Amino acid sequence: MSFQVSKSGEISLIEVEGQLIVGNRQELKQQVLEQLEGGDRKFVIDFANTGYIDSSGLGVLVSLSKKIREQGGELRLSSLNEDLRTLFELTKLDTLFRITDDKVEALEGF
């Protein structure tokens, strides 16, 4: 997994490439926590180039969402493929996150 971090105004956009799994989830968590400590409160994680997220990857997203909300912020997810969207629906995590079809939609209305 690799990821690109960029800013769109006051929104941190993190684009994940590859799989979000037990072996690399800490890398993503550390990056987001550093941004949060730096004062960022609005986050979009884009999964346009992600094919798979395992249970530990889901766990880190839930953990990050909780920490961001505690700081008065919001974490949105975008560009989930059909399999990932089904995974979020089956686990009821689609009720925890605002999930958009693409990053442009996620960035709007923040």
Please outline the helices and strands.
Blueprint: E1 2-8, E2 11-17, H1 25-37, E3 42-49, H2 55-70, E4 74-78, H3 82-90, E5 98-100, H4 103-107
Parallel strand pairs: 2-3, 3-4, 4-5
Antiparallel strand pairs: 1-2
Provide a descriptive summary of the structure in words.
- By secondary structure, the chain is α/β, with parallel strands linked by helices.
- The radius of gyration is 12 Å and the shape is globular.
- Strand 1 (2-8) and strand 2 form a beta hairpin.
- The mean pLDDT is 95.
- Strands 1-2-3-4-5 form a 5-stranded mixed sheet.
- It starts with a strand and ends with a helix.
- It has a single domain (2-107), classed as STAS domain (Transcription Regulator spoIIAA), CATH 3.30.750.24.
- The chain has 4 helices and 5 strands.
